[in-house]
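Retro notes, structure queue

What went well: the backlog is down to a handful. What didn't: a couple of records were mislabeled last round, so from now on we paste the full input next to the output in the thread. Example, using Transport permease protein from Paractinoplanes atraurantiacus:
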Amino acid sequence: MTTHVLSDTNVMLGRSMRHITRSLDTIITVTIMPIAFLLLFRYVFGGAIQANTDNYTNYLMPGVLLIAIASGISYTGFRLFNDLQGGIFERFNSMPIARSSVLWGHVLTSLVSNALSCALIVLIGLLIGFRSSAGVLAWLAVVGILLLFTLALTWIAVLAGLSASSPDGASAFSYPIVFLPFVSSAFVPTDTMPAPVKAFAENQPVTSIVNSIRALLDQQPVGNDIWIALAWCVCITVVAYALAMRAYKRKIS
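Corresponding output:
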């Protein structure tokens, strides 16, 4: 049974990835905004921001990567909505395939496409001064956190795609998520914020994730931030997955 599910999921992944490879402009479009923010904060606002660091590009990089992921997952909801409207789900349900493989195909495609987007942004960062002395294990930890963050947001995208009544609604949910890094420690230290804003910034998931990634890349102690970040990602994934599967069953019943 497990082999059957994995095989079906691999087929669905291949189908979704073909859509991506046939329209690479999707990945380019997703990365334009984060790269623009990276350049804007580095060369326009960077001189006026006191972040207590000698390399502001290093300080920016974790937040920009999260913005890229938040932007990228909107396409998952959009593609899923189009599949629903096109009747492809009904066609798949008439075939002897695992039903969950249809959703997992979209989810895994999101992980791959967002990984490519993040790799492109890191490359641009290296060109404008991003440097890291992190070792292999630290980089693997960073990749793991980014993948888990992507997974959590992708299941939210799946839920949006299954619940939306229009293509715009299937992707518009990502706008508040994209905004979260701006009210976190991604671009400025939270100590510089007014008390109510600081309280929100320090108790939302992006701050702990950004702090963890930044510490790993700078070879600094991560403290409790990494456990808080992992807890946020796991909890969001579990809740979004449960709600998405419930919505999926309603759609195909």
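Agreed that this is the format going forward. Reviewer comment attached to the example: The chain has a mean pLDDT of 82.
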